[in-house]
């Protein structure tokens, strides 16, 4: 199955996503801030990144600039049109 990096600073959400993906056989790594995410992306190759936009350290947009070749799904609590367009 896929190797997935979950970058979400809310522990409960991170764990919920991780558990559900692991239930269907995926390998998951949890990260809780932007700077650590960039380091991890440079260190390890992932099939998919699930990335929150609002993170401590670096936001999701800055993280994705340094990992643009990895397929990424953004998570966000923001509902504004500007965030959805970005």
Folded structure, characterized:
With 86 residues, this protein is an alpha/beta fold. The protein has one domain: 3-Layer(aba) Sandwich (Rossmann fold), CATH 3.40.50.2300. The protein contains four helices and four strands, in the order E-H-E-H-E-H-E-H. It has helices at 11-23, 34-43, 60-65, 81-85, and strands at residues 3-7, 27-31, 48-52, 72-75. Strands 2-1-3-4 form a four-stranded parallel β-sheet, with helices on both faces. Strand 3, helix 3 (60-65) and strand 4 (72-75) form a beta-alpha-beta unit.
Sum up the overall morphology in one term: globular
At the fourth CATH level, what is the homologous superfamily?
Answer: Response regulator
Give the class-level CATH name: Alpha Beta
Distance between the termini: 29 Å
Helix-strand pattern: EHEHEHEH
Instruction: Please give the largest β-sheet.
Output: 4 strands, parallel
Q: In angstroms, what is the radius of gyration?
A: 12 Å
Task: Pick out its properties.
single chain; 86 residues; alpha/beta; Rossmann fold; 4-stranded parallel β-sheet; 4 helices; 4 strands; 22% strand; globular
Short description:
The protein has helices at residues 11-23, 34-43, 60-65, 81-85; strands spanning 3-7, 27-31, 48-52, 72-75. With 86 residues, the chain is of the alpha/beta class.
Layout of helices and strands:
Elements: E1 3-7, H1 11-23, E2 27-31, H2 34-43, E3 48-52, H3 60-65, E4 72-75, H4 81-85
Parallel strand pairs: 1-2, 1-3, 3-4
